[in-house]
Design goal:
With 185 residues, the protein is mostly beta strands. It is 14% helix and 38% strand. The protein contains three helices and twelve strands, in the order E-E-E-E-E-H-E-H-E-E-E-E-E-E-H. It has a seven-stranded antiparallel sheet. Strands 1-11-12 form a three-stranded antiparallel sheet, with no helix packed on it. A two-stranded antiparallel ribbon has the order 7-8. The longest helix is centred in the first third of the chain and has 9 residues. The radius of gyration is 18 Å and the shape is globular.
Length: 185
């Protein structure tokens, strides 16, 4: 029998990302584990309202979403441990400025440059609805067809409520292959 856990968010793990935006003319970085897919060209990044980063996102309407792998995990974790209001994080990562003015982390093997389309405000969270303007991927993580190969690129996942980072592993199955097998049985 299943136990009722109450109103507990149970859609974890999710990809771990570092969001970058310009705040007062300098790059600022924040670690984010609350994000989601809203369509093939839209995502949502959810940040608690007190985050220093939010003011930059609201002012510039531009940000980068940099997917964390194990090589950049230590710096990414640090970006989530300190507030940009108290600590200058502008030099934490090497970066380049994207076409929309958002800073992109150079060492991130996968980054999305996004424009804010809307902010769905809740009592304690800003939920930024984003249009993906450009996606940049290192060639080393692409397959022969030019698509991201997650067997090569192993992003880190965030799990809550345990506040842990998980490694991604092997492919379990190809999408819809198992269902086709059942249909044929």
């Amino acid at each position: 029998m299943k136990k009722d856990l109450g109103s507990v968010l149970a859609l974890y793990p999710t990809p771990l990302v570092v969001v970058g935006t310009m705040v007062n003319g300098k790059p600022n970085w924040v670690l984010v584990g609350h994000l989601g897919i809203m369509g093939h060209d839209h995502i949502m990044v959810s940040l608690a309202k007190p985050h220093y980063t939010n003011q930059g996102i609201k002012e510039t309407k531009a940000l980068s979403v940099n997917v964390v792998d194990e090589e950049m995990l230590k710096k990414a974790d640090y970006a989530g441990c300190v507030s940009g209001a108290k600590t200058d994080k502008s030099e934490l990562f090497d970066y380049e400025i994207g076409r929309n003015g958002a800073p992109l982390i150079s060492e991130a093997k996968l980054s999305m440059e996004c424009t804010v389309e809307d902010n769905y405000e809740m009592k304690t969270f800003d939920n930024f609805i984003l249009t993906i303007d450009h996606t940049y991927a290192e060639e080393a993580i692409l397959n022969e067809a030019g698509k991201i190969d997650y067997d090569k690129y192993k992003p880190i996942l965030f799990e809550m409520p345990g506040y842990t980072y998980l490694r991604t592993g092997e492919t379990a199955a190809k999408c819809m292959a198992l269902g086709r097998e059942m249909k044929e049985e």
